[in-house]
Amino acid sequence: MELNKYILIIREDIRTSRPDTELNEIIQLHIQWAKDLAAKGIFINGYGLNGEGCLLELIDGDIVTKPIPYPEMAFGGLYVIKAESFEAALEIGKQCPTFSIGDKIEVRELI
After folding, report:
1. CA 108, CA 111: separation in Å to the nearest integer?
2. Distance separating alpha carbons of residues 13 and 40, to the nearest angstrom
């Protein structure tokens, strides 16, 4: 049976910067989680993003650069995984190691 692909989008608050030591700890947690998912054969890829970014939007015929509208829910990184079902992908997402620091996970199926 071929497994479906899902994206686990890490949503994080980018309004406050974290000390480098804390950022390194968070990165190490995510590296270990990716290794754990890979050992289970369900990890496809993953990326982290830095806190800088902007939103491009068409307004009155012009492309306008705007700040991220909800910095408390910014896109901080992603995992692409394989799972048998959406419910299985949700269960995988629940294992994210950084919920305790306020991260949220958005789970979506890739088509």
Report:
1. 9
2. 30
Give the predicted TM-score (pTM) of the model.
Answer: 0.90
Q: Which two tokens stand for residue 51?
A: 């806190």
**Domains parsed from the chain with CATH numbers:** 4-109 (3.30.70.1060)
Of 12, 21, 14, 40, the residue nearest 97 (C-alpha): 12
Query: What residues contact 100, with CB distance under 8 A and at least 6 apart?
Result: none
Residue pLDDT tens, the chain, 111 long:
789 999 999 999 888 788 999 999 999 999 999 999 999 999 999 999 987 889 999 999 999 999 998 888 899 999 999 999 999 999 999 999 999 999 999 999 999
Q: Which of 70, 82, 62, 57 is nearest to 7 (CA)?
A: 82
Q: Which residues contact 35 (CB under 8 A, 6 or more apart)?
A: none
